[in-house]
Amino acid sequence: MNPYLDRLQPYPFEKLAALIGEVEPNPNLTPLNISIGEPKHPVAKKLRDAMANALDGISRYPTTRGELTLRRAAAGWLENRFELGKDSIDPDKNILPVNGTREALFSIAQLFTKQKSDPKEPIVLSPNPFYQIYEGAAHIAQTKLVFVNANADNNFLPEYHKLDKDILDGTALLYLCTPANPTGAVYNLEQLQQLIELADKHDFIIASDECYSEIWYNSPPPGLLQAAWAMGRKDFSRCLVFHSLSKRSNMPGARSGFVAGDQDVLATYFRLRTYTGCATPPFIQQAATAAWQDESHVEENRIQYRQKLQESIAILSPTLRVTQPEAGFYLWLKVPGGGVSFARRLYEGYNVTVLPGAFLSRDNNGENPGAPYIRVAMVASTKDNREAMERIAACAREIQNK
Ligand SMILES: Cc1ncc(COP(=O)(O)O)c(C=O)c1O
Prior knowledge:
- The chain is of the alpha/beta class.
- The chain has two domains: 3-42 and 297-400, Alpha-Beta Complex (Aspartate Aminotransferase, domain 1); 59-294, Aspartate Aminotransferase, domain 2 (3-Layer(aba) Sandwich), CATH 3.40.640.
- Helices cover 38% and strands 14% of the residues.
- It contains 14 helices and twelve strands.
- It has helices at residues 12-20, 45-52, 68-81, 101-107, 133-140, 165-170, 189-202, 224-230, 245-248, 263-276, 282-292, 296-316, 339-350, 382-400, and strands at residues 32-33, 95-98, 123-128, 144-149, 171-177, 205-209, 239-244, 257-261, 330-334, 352-353, 355-356, 373-377.
- The strands form three sheets. The protein has a seven-stranded mixed beta sheet, with helices on both faces. It has a three-stranded antiparallel beta sheet with strand order 9-12-11. A two-stranded parallel sheet has the order 1-10.
- Helix 13 (339-350) crosses helix 14 (382-400).
- Bound molecules: pyridoxal-5'-phosphate.
- The site of pyridoxal-5'-phosphate has 14 residues, from helix 4.
């Protein structure tokens, strides 16, 4: 067996099940589970109709490259949303559909496995806390994983530029997560451009996971391609972005997204993908085409998240210090007693399930940056979200008053 498989950790939700599995939740309260980042707002009717009307497609094998109409729709969306030049994204060269960005974030690391001629393992950089796929991807690609902490001292933006030169020189791939899961932090345009310059200097590729980019509160977060374009970098070299319909369009079950950017990297990645059998079903491609062409359902979605965020902050802030996320639908809450014991007590006393931050982060450089926190997903209905926040505040007061 591949010895690197032993490095894979249980998924955060398995750790959560182990933490609360034996605990009896308060039977007098209805259960509220806000641990998973699964959108619960309804899917727009026009997207469901587009899918239902395309069912005849199941009699054909889809291609790995996907239909041109989908690639054109995604390219048009990118150009508008990120202020790229018209026709700057070539739908034949700069874009590939993927079956949800999770599989793509995993498989992209396969391009950077160890070279026989080089005794050193290539390095993959990941934020910490992080989306767990980056870690598994780096291990299975047999690379060396280096975490960079996101904490209150750096405004939850990992400072990759502060790494030792040796590490940066050995880096093959940097996973960027902006807006970040779980912290909601966003790199600004200048910071993204500095990262691109760092990638040039040390010769690595940036994989920018931007699946939360459309759930924003004050202004739309910039993206990596936008930063590259604004630098006059028309070939988007070294830059890849990963976009998804899971959060933007409430369609996690459709498993649909795309990767866009550097055409040379994408050409190699395309070759890999032709072997892995990951072509997108035709009816999903039709729904995805409709989704990338429509902004009204995305705006409606944002309005609901904004209301929930405002209400959550109003309920929590008298008891806890809440840092407002710039984007995404999570609250990253520092809680009394640390995330693990708080999550356990919250489940036991208040029947609310949240994820301890430590399950999303690792010990690194003398700290576990997730340990003081819990991650709360504002995905439930307005009513359930309000109820969950009230119970979290009550639990915090109980612990503070002990
Ligand atoms: C940071 C981050 N990236 C990527 C994904 C994967 O999304 P999908 O595979 O549904 O596109 C998720 C899902 O929760 C996520 O939180």
